[in-house]
Design goal:
The structure is a single chain. Strands 8, 9, 12, 13, 14, 15, 18, 19, 20, 21, 22, 23, 24 and 25 form a 14-stranded antiparallel beta sheet that branches. This protein has a 6-stranded antiparallel barrel with strand order 26-27-28-31-30-29. A 4-stranded mixed beta sheet has the order 1-7-6-3, with no helix packed on it. The protein is mainly beta and 429 residues long. The protein has helices at 3-23, 25-32, 140-143, 167-176, 365-371, 409-415, and strands spanning 36-40, 44-48, 53-57, 64-68, 72-77, 81-89, 92-102, 106-109, 113-128, 131-133, 136-138, 151-155, 158-159, 180-186, 189-195, 198-199, 206-207, 210-225, 231-234, 250-264, 273-278, 284-287, 290-292, 295-299, 313-314, 324-333, 336-347, 358-362, 382-385, 388-397, 400-408. The chain has 6 helices and 31 strands.
């Protein structure tokens, strides 16, 4: 046998062996073991493994506990910190897994119906209108290049905070036939322009030819609050202006209690809605400091209860959420919070913040009979799975009101200014 023939035979044997290994159960299980594992103090997880694979930590410490049997590895987080786990096959290292134990962290789930009052930075331009002046019909604001969605922040160098701040400037400039120097915010860009008000023939007053607004109100659902800091998150999605369809840039705002008065049931192609009113006392229970794609965030000035799950609960990170049964906390009548069954249809273990992390489906017969599924005003309802808060309801599917999207709690906590990944500080020796 020639040397080349021997090489071909050996090469063929190696190729067949590699293919066989690739399809073998141990190798497939090895591929499914993640490169990084994150868990909380007190939490334990199990990982399937092949019989001949063994595991050990890079160093023995109190941070985590490792146990293994024939077919699985069990990890328990004892103290926050980082370590490395090495997997071996027949005595040879085959994989390194970074293990990060986070501090024990809990939030109190919401579910309460809340009223939302937002005050914008400056005044928001929501439309143009034609002024019938002596020289014809026109909109001075439109002529000045002011667009729908722009925010007027200054006039003649003076800060504008509310609609009533605008009128004195308009009448004075109109009577003197002098232009107003206007500063605008347009999609995070500052723009200056000049505008000369025109006198309306019918009313005898000077006008800008703009529709403006300085506040917005609505209802939604509380998702969680952190008992130590009282920071909260709600809604699970951004609040947009109903006319401009753009996110409202918040100067400040408040949340109050609200009561659900009735439900407009959802149907195919027609999302339903919770009809609610602010509680009669209009007591402010918290502020609003941020309006982001993940919801509204701020700080409560008092503890609030849902009457069902009022104790701090652990959370699940995006990669820990599983497809299968879950529940939501929400109000469908008056101010009574109830638990309803849903199904996590799919979930994405996201590495970076994203608003659509889960697809959910309402399965609870009582909720389906009452609402038809997910309705407007239900956004922010906390999702509970395996006694953990995993996220919030965000959007309904227009063509299927029983289904919609959910956002992972991990990203809402980040937006609320809560750092669950806080690393331990080393003590000075």
């Amino acid at each position: 046998m020639t040397l080349n023939a021997l090489r071909k035979i050996i090469g063929g044997i190696l190729l067949v062996s590699l293919i066989a290994i690739g399809f073998s159960k141990p190798f497939q299980e090895y591929l499914h073991i993640p490169n990084k594992i994150t868990l909380f103090e007190g939490q334990h997880i199990e990982i399937a493994k092949a019989k001949m694979v063994s595991a050990e930590m890079s160093s023995n410490n109190e941070r985590m506990e490792l146990k293994e049997d024939t077919h699985s590895i069990s990890l328990k987080g004892n103290k926050h910190g980082e370590n490395e786990m090495f997997l071996e096959l027949a005595g040879f290292p085959i994989k390194k897994v970074d293990v990060n134990v986070l501090k024990d962290f809990k939030v109190i789930p919401g579910g309460q119906s809340i009223g939302v009052k937002l005050n914008t930075i400056g005044v928001l331009v929501v439309g143009h209108h034609q002024i019938d002046a002596l020289d014809g019909k026109s909109s001075p604001g439109e002529i000045a290049g002011i667009k729908i969605g722009d925010i007027i922040t200054e006039i003649n160098g003076k800060k504008i905070e509310k609609m009533s701040d605008v009128a004195p400037f308009v009448q004075e400039a109109g009577s003197k036939s002098t232009p107003l120097k206007i500063m605008l915010n347009r999609e995070n860009e500052k723009i200056s322009t000049e505008l000369t008000p025109k006198k309306d023939k019918a009313e005898g007053s000077y006008k800008l030819g703009l529709y403006i607004r300085d506040s917005a109100a609505g209802i939604g659902t509380m998702t969680f609050y952190h008992p130590e800091s009282r920071k909260y998150g709600a809604l699970g999605h951004v609040i947009s202006d109903m006319d401009t369809k753009k996110a409202i840039v918040v100067d400040d705002g408040q949340i109050v209690r609200s009561t659900v008065t009735s439900i407009e049931k959802g149907s195919h192609g027609n999302p339903g809605e919770k009809l609610a009113r602010f509680s009669p006392d209009k007591e402010v229970i918290g502020n609003i400091v941020k309006n982001s794609p993940f919801g509204i965030f701020g700080k409560l000035n008092q503890d609030i209860k849902n009457g069902i799950l009022d104790k701090p609960m652990p959370i699940a990170l995006s990669h820990q959420v599983k497809e299968g049964p879950a529940q939501i906390l929400t109000v469908v009548d008056n101010d009574e919070v109830n638990l309803f069954d849903i199904e996590i249809v799919s979930t994405i273990p996201q590495k970076f913040p994203a608003t659509k992390g889960m697809v959910i489906k309402v399965t609870d017969p009582k909720l389906l009979a009452k609402t038809g599924g997910i309705v407007q005003g239900m956004s922010g309802s906390p999702i509970i799975q395996n006694d953990k808060v995993i996220g919030a309801v965000t959007h309904v599917f227009v063509n299927d009101p029983t289904s919609g999207y959910g956002v992972h709690i991990e990203w809402m906590l980040h937006e609320a200014g809560i750092d669950i990944y806080e690393q331990p500080r080393e003590k000075a020796s």
